[in-house]
Design a protein that fits this description.
- The protein has a single domain, classed as Flavodoxin domain (Rossmann fold).
- 39% of the residues lie in helices and 16% in strands.
- The strands form two sheets. The chain has a five-stranded parallel sheet, with helices on both faces.
- The termini are far apart.
- The mean pLDDT is 97.
- Bound molecules: flavin mononucleotide.
- Flavin mononucleotide binds next to helix 1.
Length: 242
C-alpha cells in the first residue's frame, strides 16, 4: 500500500495540516504502508496556462518544465493520494489548487457519459489512486468544509476512482495548544489520527467508529469563540504598540 500525501499549507512543518498529516501517516507506516509526505510549498509548480498542450501536442506532458512532472508520477504510483490543505476562503489553499489543476495531463480529453448520464473524460489509465482529503480551519465547527467534500467527490468521479478517506478538523489552532491544559484532548485526537492512518493502510478506508470519533469537537464552540477573540485582541494590541 503506497500512500502519498500532498501538503498544500504554505506554513509547511509549522502547520496544523502538517501535525494532522504527520500523525495520520505515522499510523499508516506503523501498519505497513509505504508513506510519503510532500510539501507543495517547497516545490516549483507553475499555474496551469490552459493551453491543452498536455492533451493535444504532447499527451501527458505539460509545457511547463518544473516539479509537477515528478509529482504526477508519484500521484499515479500511489494506492491512496491525499490532498492535505488548510481551509482558505472555504476552499483548498492556492498551493493545493494549483497542484490539482496541473493534474490535467493524466486525463484523456475525449468525453463520455458516466453511469448517471453525466459527461466526464474517458478513462486514460487503467488505475487511478483512491483519493483522500485532510483539512483544518480556523472556525470551530465540523460544518465548515462543504466545498472540499464536493470537490473531492467531483475529482473522484472525473478520474473514475473513489474517495477513500476524509479528515476535517474545525478549530485547527487548538492543535498548537500542546503546552496548556488541553494537552490530553490533543493527545487523544492524535491517537485517533494514528488509528485512522492504520485503518487506511490495512482497509483503504477509515472505520465508521473512528470517523465518528474524529468528528467530535475538541472544545465547546462558545469557549472557542471567547478564547479566539482574546487571542486576536492580544495580537492586535502587541502589534500596534510600536
Ligand atoms: C487566506 C486565508 C483564508 C482563510 N479562510 C478560512 C475560512 O474560509 N474558514 C476558516 O474557518 N478558516 C480560514 N482560515 C484560517 C485557516 O484555515 C487556519 O488558520 C488553519 O488552521 C491554517 O492551517 P495550517 O496551519 O495548516 O496552514 C483562513 C486563513 C487564511 C490565511
Amino acid at each position: 500500500m503506497i500512500i502519498t500525501l500532498f501538503n498544500g499549507s504554505p506554513r509547511m512543518k509549522k502547520s496544523r495540516t502538517y501535525t494532522i498529516a504527520d500523525e495520520f501517516l505515522r499510523g499508516a507506516a506503523e501498519a505497513g504502508a509505504q508513506v510519503e509526505h510532500i510539501l507543495l510549498q517547497k516545490k516549483k509548480i507553475k499555474p496551469c496556462l490552459g493551453c491543452f498542450n498536455c492533451l493535444i501536442k504532447t499527451p501527458g506532458i505539460c509545457i511547463h518544465k518544473d516539479d509537477q512532472g515528478e509529482l504526477i508520477k508519484k500521484f499515479m504510483a500511489s494506492d491512496v493520494a491525499i490532498f492535505a490543505s488548510p481551509l482558505y476562503a472555504d476552499n483548498f489553499s492556492g498551493q493545493t489548487k494549483t497542484f490539482i489543476d496541473r493534474l490535467i495531463p493524466i486525463l484523456d480529453p475525449h468525453l463520455e457519459k458516466d453511469e448517471n448520464g453525466e459527461v466526464r473524460h474517458v478513462k486514460k489509465h487503467d488505475k487511478y489512486p483512491l483519493l483522500g482529503v485532510i483539512s483544518n480551519c480556523g472556525f470551530p465547527e465540523q460544518s465548515q468544509f462543504p466545498a472540499l467534500k464536493i470537490i473531492i467527490r467531483r475529482m473522484a468521479r472525473n478520474l473514475d476512482t473513489e474517495v477513500a478517506m476524509e479528515i476535517y478538523r474545525g478549530g485547527g489552532p487548538l492543535l498548537d495548544a500542546v503546552d496548556t491544559p488541553l494537552k490530553p484532548v490533543i493527545d487523544g485526537y492524535k491517537n485517533l489520527l494514528r488509528k485512522a492512518g492504520a485503518e487506511v493502510a490495512v482497509n483503504s478506508k477509515i472505520s465508521e467508529s473512528t470517523a465518528a470519533e474524529l468528528e467530535k469537537p475538541l472544545v465547546p464552540v462558545d469557549m472557542y469563540i471567547a478564547t479566539a477573540n482574546s487571542w486576536w485582541d492580544e495580537q492586535i494590541k502587541e502589534a500596534r504598540k510600536a
